[in-house]
Amino acid sequence: SPAAALRELVKGEVLTLETSVSRGVHRARQLASEADHENISLPEKPVTIALDEAYDGHLVQEVEGQQEARN
């Protein structure tokens, strides 16, 4: 569920809930824009895909990569 995905992100203390939501919304908009640009239909709503990615750890990996690049 979306709430479980967000809780899982926060549990690792990599992201705050507010940051998790913000990054999830950003990714959903990115997915929608890419689909529109490529004139394709998404199998699910962009926010569902973004939350699935977050739950699978893709969002956390992206943030950790950004943190490493700053150091």
**Termini separation (Å)?**
34 Å
Assembly type: single chain
Q: pLDDT below 50 for ≥5 consecutive residues: which ranges?
A: none
Count up the helices: 4
Radius of gyration: 13 Å
What's the shape? elongated
Approximate helicity band = over 70%
What structural class should be given to the helix and strand makeup?
mainly alpha
Could you state the order of secondary-structure elements as H and E?
Answer: HHHH
Strands, total number: 0
> Sheet bearing the most strands, described?
none
What number is the mean pLDDT? 76
Proportion in β-strands: under 5%
Mind explaining what this structure looks like?
- It is a single chain.
- The chain contains four helices and no strands.
- The chain is mainly α and 71 residues long.
- It starts with a helix and ends with a helix.
- The model has no long low-confidence stretch (mean pLDDT 76).
- It has helices at residues 2-11, 17-37, 46-55, 58-70.
- The protein is elongated and about 35 Å long.
- The chain is 76% helix and 0% strand.
